[in-house]
């Protein structure tokens, strides 16, 4: 690892952001597809980020041309990659559910919770059938393209479409509650109060020593001394807590009261152990703002050009000297 110096880091970072700019027209439809697959906003964004990262590595080491190229058609490749990763995750989940558990089984959820979670759908229609219907009926992929995405034949796609449509006709595409471990409302309130004080020491004290601070798509940092608090308190930003699908989250709003970032907290020993900013995930922010009835504004998929140039030149953390979400 000693051979990875600033020159290498700058080159990789430059290539990454150029790659994000090139793929920007595909981001919104990819996010919409992942959201329809997962039916969870956080899982959808995670899937998008995983697919983008995999695509970056694949393009960097593969041939863009020729009949055997997996990335010759970027749109088809990204959707195919998302499909494979989601189906593989569903298979792993199914295997885990089939394994005997040592602790006593948890009580069955109420019928409404089960319906919202989409369990009945997955019991009737396989993940492949669900993906086939979404690819065909929502995104207008051809049967041949879907067969390629699902690693099957056109005949197999037709069968999957028949099964999937029958199941989906009986299931409402209702949003499901978040199943992730969020921070307690009390800790969220402490965080918001500390931020509003614009006191770096007080804000830093809310974090664990090794707090993970993540900004999907552009990087992140670790620990209290990473510069996040110092960079954040200088912004004309106001915060408020909100409940989104049962989880208490933090809304970051600009001076015009427009939502530009949604942050999620995880907790350990009464402190913030993980902080995830979605300021450069505009599709996620827009979806959440729409559900909460809050006007949104997009910062784009990465920092503004002048900030990005300085960040690449110094290989600093995402917020650099200009701060997170600087405009």
UniProtKB/TrEMBL annotation:
Residue ranges constituting the RNA polymerase sigma-70 region domain according to the UniProt record: 27-95
Keyword annotations of the record: DNA-binding, Sigma factor, Transcription, Transcription regulation
Chain ranges of the RNA polymerase sigma factor 70 region 4 type domain: 126-168
Domain of life assignment: Bacteria
Pfam family, one: Sigma70_r2
Keyword Transcription (UniProt): yes
Subunit structure: Interacts transiently with the RNA polymerase catalytic core formed by RpoA, RpoB, RpoC and RpoZ (2 alpha, 1 beta, 1 beta' and 1 omega subunit) to form the RNA polymerase holoenzyme that can initiate transcription.
Family to which this protein belongs: Belongs to the sigma-70 factor family. ECF subfamily.
Name of the protein: RNA polymerase sigma-70 factor (ECF subfamily)
Provenance organism: Caulobacter ginsengisoli
